[in-house]
Write a structure and sequence with these properties.
Shape: globular
Structural class: alpha+beta
Strand content: 5-15%
Number of strands: 7
Strand order of the largest sheet: 6-5-4-3-2-1-7
Helix content: 25-40%
Low-confidence stretches: 1-35
Order of helices and strands: HHHHEEEEEEEHHHHHHH
Length: 442
Amino acid sequence: QDRGGGAGAAFLSLSLQMFPRPLFLLLLGLAAPLLRAEDFQGSTHPVPYDEETIFYSKATPADPIAALQAKLNSGELKLAHDREHGYLPAVLDYFKIPRSSQTLVYSKTSLQRSLITPETPRALYFNDDVYIGYIPGAPVLEVSAVDPKLGGTFYHIDQEKLRKPTFVRDADCLRCHSGPRTMGVPGHVMRSVGTDLTGEMDATSEVSGIDHCTPLEDRWAGWYVTGTHGEQTHRGNLVGPEALAQQWERPNARGNLSSLREFFDPKPYLEPGSDIVALMVLGHQAHMHNYITRLNYEAQILQARYGHTRYLTTQTTAFLRYLLFTEEVRLVDPIAGSSSYAADFMKMGPRDSKGRSLRDFDLQTRLFKYPCSFLIYTPAFDALPATVRDNLLQRLYDILTGKDTAREWAGLSTADRQAVLEILRETKPSLPPYWRAQTAAR
């Protein structure tokens, strides 16, 4: 059956009573794929993406990186090289990725793992479909994108000044970016795993799969976090096992930070912090992208095998639950970032005639003001096979107008449904004509 919050909550309550904390964390790490809220049974199983139908490795990407490389090859565009940061500033500017999106991870979770330490964390910058990984002094810049058909695609570019810089597709990234953590498809992942004092990971401390359904207190081990979150706790800024263990005795001893200078010198980075709001968005969108890719792959395979996609009912229901934040963990204190990220992010999205956008933050009791993922606007969503995309849009319309009264949607208020319906009507031109009917949500 579908995994829901009730069974997971019962397991957590029973486990806390039965096991000491360290053992429980180990068991939780092992059981994490079974506890993911809003996913579906088998969602961690690998999809045969390099076999017939998908041909992931042989296919020519049509992602934003491939488009940039074509311009570089033709001479239409040149990338400026920065003496201190290499091609990082130019790449960020080209893709309009705000510097304020910087998040910092010190766990050794990269192919350049030997260069990552708590004193030299890896910086991640991102927009809706491009992710950039930067380590001061590293020989290459790590780049990944979301291809509308292929899902996550991975590249690197040399950081030394070149006459013709080239983004090289990197298959080695799939060692970590394709498996149970990415829904069995090439994709992106956010982990919460404790480290020793050098950044080496301790697998027994991992809480797998960080997204908007993960309790805040389980997020961001191995990451730096700046910004305020009240008395809510998280696992960021806890370098080494002793610091992680002290969290239970001195909650928030390393929380609500505005500066990271006690850990390292931030001068080599474009921003001084690791914004908590950016971290929350990153967790949501990484899993959302993987979900879109998983649906795309399964639909293509089923269509090729059976001539239809009717077997995807469970998957599409679970997808809509995630899209609409139905199992989002509620905030009990307000969240505020340490940079301009929240403002920068909200500027990017389309707005309706009332000035509303799916990119508007709430940050008081939940992440977004209007509970529908902004990634519904992405080329990846629009590139879903027509049968699946049309089914999703029909079901979404039925949910928002109150026609679908299933228990999964009981937590969506009438006001939220109406607002999302009206925003999408005005800001997503590709919607089917029936969406334009002025049917109020019941």
